[in-house]
């Protein structure tokens, strides 16, 4: 474990806590894409198949349970909770995310580390996470002004993978066997997708103005 | 190398 990876995991946890805060404090999920939440639940469920077979550390197991539990709770809340689901922007959240799932699964069948059930689903989860934010970014562009908590949620979600890239660079130079090219390339694509959001987020922070994404 | 070493990240 290095400082970049720990900071990355804490930033990821922060994004989830901010999202939970927004939903429970405001009893509203306006501006949040249910499709992105569903994709993230699928990412964690397919990435952590080794949850009960490989024990790495208490930290690793606890974080996996937190990520799986929180993502399922958010999807449940947005679909079933009486008050919250009324504020869901269903008519704006129309990204065809099933195509993303199909494309990532096909890619995982072609590019993976080993042709085993666990490795193919692991590669699938890595590719899916890279594009999972797309429905959310499209929804932000369509819904005009973005409330602070939603903006912070997306910012922390993008920042965590950028910290992971620093972690991979650090591990590349400090560990001899280190090679995570699937995760690295996918992580670069994932972080690049946030580039324009980071730009507008920085502008809104600098001008102390409301976050506005151009339509 | 065991999978535990290869996949130790979240």
From TrEMBL, chain A:
Membrane topology listed for this record: Multi-pass membrane protein
Transmembrane segments: 55-77, 121-141, 153-173, 179-202
Keyword Transferase attributed: no
Localization in the cell: Endoplasmic reticulum membrane
InterPro entries: ER_ret_rcpt (IPR000133)
A biological process term (GO) from this entry: protein transport
One Gene Ontology MF term: ER retention sequence binding
Keyword list, A-Z: Endoplasmic reticulum, ER-Golgi transport, Membrane, Protein transport, Receptor, Transmembrane, Transmembrane helix, Transport
Chief place where the protein resides: endoplasmic reticulum
GO cellular component entries: cis-Golgi network; endoplasmic reticulum; endoplasmic reticulum membrane
Similarity comment: Belongs to the ERD2 family.
Name of the molecule in the record: ER lumen protein-retaining receptor
């Amino acid at each position: 474990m290095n400082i970049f990876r720990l900071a990355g995991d804490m930033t990821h946890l922060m994004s989830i806590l901010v999202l939970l805060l927004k939903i429970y404090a405001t009893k509203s999920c306006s501006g949040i894409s249910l499709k992105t939440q569903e994709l993230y639940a699928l990412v964690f469920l397919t990435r952590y198949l080794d949850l009960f077979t490989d024990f790495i550390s208490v930290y690793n197991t606890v974080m996996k349970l937190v990520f799986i539990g929180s993502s399922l709770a958010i999807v449940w809340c947005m679909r079933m909770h009486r008050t919250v689901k009324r504020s869901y922007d269903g008519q704006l959240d129309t990204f065809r995310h099933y195509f993303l799932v199909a494309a990532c699964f096909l890619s995982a069948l072609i590019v993976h580390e080993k042709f085993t059930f666990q490795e193919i689903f692991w590669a699938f989860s890595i590719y899916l996470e890279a594009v999972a934010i797309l429905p959310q970014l499209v929804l932000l562009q369509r819904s005009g002004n973005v409330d602070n908590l939603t903006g912070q949620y997306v910012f922390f979600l993008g920042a965590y993978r950028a910290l992971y890239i620093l972690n991979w660079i650090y591990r590349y130079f400090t560990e001899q066997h280190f090679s995570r090219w699937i995760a690295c390339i996918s992580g670069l694509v994932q972080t690049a997708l946030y580039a324009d959001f980071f730009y507008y987020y920085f502008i809104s922070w600098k001008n102390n103005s409301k976050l506005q994404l151009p339509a | 190398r065991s999978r535990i070493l290869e996949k130790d990240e979240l």
